[in-house]
User: Fold Protein translocase subunit SecA from Amycolatopsis bullii.
Amino acid sequence: MAALISRVGKKLRRIIQRPGSVELTRYEALLPAVEKLEPELEKLSDEELTERAGKLRETLKDTAFGDDQLIEVCALGREAARRALGERAFDVQILGTMGLLTKHVVQMETGEGKTLAGALAAAGYAIRGKRVHVVTVNDYLARRDAEWMGPVYALLGVSVGWVEPSHSREERREAYAKDVTYGAVAEIGFDVLRDRLVTKVDDLVQPDPEVAIVDEADSVLVDEARVPLVMAGSIDRSDADEEVAKIVRRLRLNLHYETDSEGRNAWLTDAGSSVVAKSLGIEVDDLFNEQASDRLAAVNVALHAHALLTRDVDYLVRDGKVQLINAARGRVAELQRWPDGLQAAVEAKEQVTATDRGEILDSITVQALLARYPEVAGMTGTAVAVAEQLREFYELEVAVIPPNTPNIREDLEDRIFASPSQKLRAIEEEIRTVHETGRPILVGTQDVAESEELAEKLAKVDLECVVLNARNDAEEAAIIAEAGKKGAVTVSTQMAGRGTDIRLGGTDGADRDEVVELGGLHVIGTARYPSSRLDGQLRGRSGRQGDPGSAIFFASLNDELVLSNAPDVPEGIAADEETGEITDPAALRQINHAQRVAEGVDLEIHRNTWRYTRLIERQRRDLLVHRDKVLRTAYAAEVLEKAHPEKFGELKEKLDDQDKLEQMCREVLLFHIDQLWSDHLAYLTDVRESIHLRALARETPLDEFHRAAIPEFHKIIGEADSRAAKTLEEAELTDEGIDLGDAGVRRANTTWTYLVHDNPFDSDFEQTIKKVRSMIKRK
Assistant:
């Protein structure tokens, strides 16, 4: 009877608390069989264990996992981990492994062993004959996990490698040749872009994609899904107008310019237009005529940089460079930048050296990058909150893995205040009071500026703390690892993707028992995040593996979350005259409502962006099929011979080598294909920037975008053939064949990769978003 009640209870919890999660009964039923194999496998030598995994590989090759194979793979993985790491995988880790092997996103709480579960699943796919990429959020975790799990893979006869920015092309090729390759999502994406521009098959570094296991899946698949990774070729230095930057720097909010309530748009007032025109030495009317459009565009971009982007919140200035801050992770977004004009405007605003400007040679969104893999699985601590997006955009279901030990963390009710200053005073008092007990404290802030402001205030009352944010991200793992020490106070921006558990008592666990007795780690959130998922990630740092702990969030009705998403606070909400604290339940409802609005808007931006980029990705995929044909066959030589048989014959005589002839023709045609694709991307950017004018004319922007983009794309292959033929026709032939440089076939001598921090189609889309926001607010 008790067993029946337990099973019913589990099902009810899944239905009520965990929407979108898959049933685990099938996998739970296999756990006894996995355990039953342990005594048998323990008797094997290391060589015999590896041999047994090899036999399973022969049996499984290119077939799907049945129950028997899942049992064998998991039992072998558990034994390999026990020998290599001294860790016997818990049943919940084996459940996670099974969930990954059956192409789900598994939700496992912080500290429950996602890294090992992911490694066992990667080994399982490799034993099945698949090449596996374990996609991480940063380079540090890619190398750490590959090295850490290396001995486990070795016992299973699976090779492992990783890619990082410092690797050469040969090192990358070697890493991708392994059964399992770890890499940051950006690094793997940049290698895809580089491979798309090679002119020799031997220069390719990546094999065809087969399986991706995504760590911090919600962050990668949702938060960064629409972020474009870009490869650019050098042209010259950015051409920000320094004169305009100086003019805009003198403008004042509400006098010379205004912004919308969401902080997304800024525009000049009549007074501002007058000041700008006078400073430029022109009449106000001339500022808005067609001849001055470039200058007006420069003013608008400079105004955006001045009014809407804030130092230490949106970006840092470090080592003489502007570095963007990843809002989802609260730290420096390596290699990320805004589109060229805005990047240059921010650099001019901060008076730092301008970075190189280039033409975009190719790009791919993170979502499209992951869509290349026939099989995708993922793991994270907070998947249920984005189950709808994972299903809609990736056709992935969430499997919620129960904790190995029940979570006993105490989640305290939010404390709400009338103003941010009153809230900050209460946070200081909370830290002081808890610190006096000796409990370790982790404070999660919204941005770098808030972290440093709080640290300064704590220092004034002799409360030492360690600040973990975008300024010292290289040291973050060591800092976080010690956040559980007795008396520690750690102030941090976003916690997602830190990759390090907080162990009570610190890494050495010297005072663990005392910290447990005191109540464990106390987590404080200085404000609610725009997503409940981010709130959960911060809370989840406390109470790992059954440890005691607590978490509390502080909020204000004047926090950015409320002001941007639900500013119409109901009347009659009273605050304590002395402290400013609000106990009226309506205040919490308002904050929860603001968070739901923010989540709804973000989802709609994702949907709308994908509607546009999906066409671009489909066009790129179709063109790459043709490009690969050119790269691997004699197609280019056939095209040129057909177009100009006599000139082709002369070229053939000069070279007297069929391979050299085909390669030279290939280089010419591939150059024109790549140049035309780059031109197409630039054209689509122009369409994107002007499409809001079509929206004003009551035309559907998406339909108009397709109407403009599709005919232009269909011209590319024919135009490339024509241009290649013209190159041959006009080229001066030498003993070496065609002097490609003299013939105008010049590829960029410098290329670089970066991520674009952009909201595509922002200008027209803002109107849609405002409608969505107002609709959600009425609900």
Notes: The CA atoms of residues 529 and 535 lie 6 Å apart. Confidence is low (pLDDT under 50) at residues 12-19, 758-779.
